[in-house]
User: What shape does this take?
Amino acid sequence: MTTTTKTEDKYDIIIAGGGFAGMALGAALIKYMPEGFQVAIIDNTDPAQAGAFEFDGRASSLSAGSKQMLDTLDAWSAVEDHAQPILEIDITDSSLSDAIRPTIIHYENTLKGGTAKEGDKPASWMVENFRMRKALLDVVDGLEGIDFKAPETVVDMERDDHGVLVELASGEKLRGRLLIAADGRRSRIREKAEIKTVGWQYPQLAIVTTVTHEKPHNATAVQHFLPAGPFAILPLKGNRSSLVWNETRARGKAIMALDDEAFLKELEIRFGKRLGALELSGPRMAYPMEMHLARTYIAGRLALIGDAAHGVHPIAGQGLNLALRDVAALAEVLVDSARLGLDIGAGEPLERYERWRRFDSTVSTFVFDGFNRLFSSDNAALRGIRDFGLGLVDRSPGLKSIFVKEAAGLSGDVPRLLKGEPV
Assistant: This one.
């Protein structure tokens, strides 16, 4: 990773946003584009800040496809020893007053086709966010051709038929052939490009924290569908689990205001006794829930990826995986176009990217929204219908296999990076 101090620098691609998606895209482009390709990554957080690589309570679910992509980009080896495979999944549908929460669906979260030594392969993994960020930063830092500019923000941009000119808060100006918006749900780049979104807020708050428990989780994830929303228990290395706990906004704020002892009592009511005594082992955070979808993922000399393009309910833990699918598709489109001598910032390559990703992300967004609405209700009749449907799924190995493959990111028109193949 290099730095520059010129008044105006020239790049092939400028990426606004140095999160997981922005760094993964930068690494993929430098790895597979022709020699001499130049990328700038702009992020408002200094990667060298104190505490940047300490556990902050957040962890993410990585699909098998995302894992294979990180492996291809030389980032997986740094987190592999700390990644917890999810080998089984239990789903319950219950009320808080239910003394017993029977498992309605149980399935193995594995993919057939591993070697005899490996056996079946995990369809998903849990990894703490700070470890993934460190791994991707190390990859980016080791690549010639990437300038990581931080802490820095884009304050203005100009686009025309020939390229894009970006002005940073420091006054520095960057020229490029294409600008990538990877700057999150409140994307300033999307706003400046006047790309509208469709979406809404949920009457829910997501509480995120980490607990240590007395008994081992046995690599099993649990999804309790409770009236206020899903309560997910996601295994981490050791006797620890990451929690994503949905509550109504008012109730969620009240719970967050409790001291640790009272908070833990509320948590135990929802967690149950299956893993024994609980202790908080990370900070607790709360986020308002919302859904949004950009009306277009592209504009002149501009492409949107990740949360800048779409934001989904965390009911299935697929937000990061959808972002990495964007990265894999866009990298493949741009590399293929460059090899053909096409203008990577022109309409044809960008239109191919949008066609590839828009349908999948739109369907995923509304499916997750529908699941949340269906299961965030304590209506007795609706619960009966839900449980009947879930029971049918539980007795259908074929349906379970389809769900596992879809969640693994390996169904449909899969970009090469998600298959673990070079672009």
In short: Residues 282 and 357 are 35 Å apart (CA to CA).
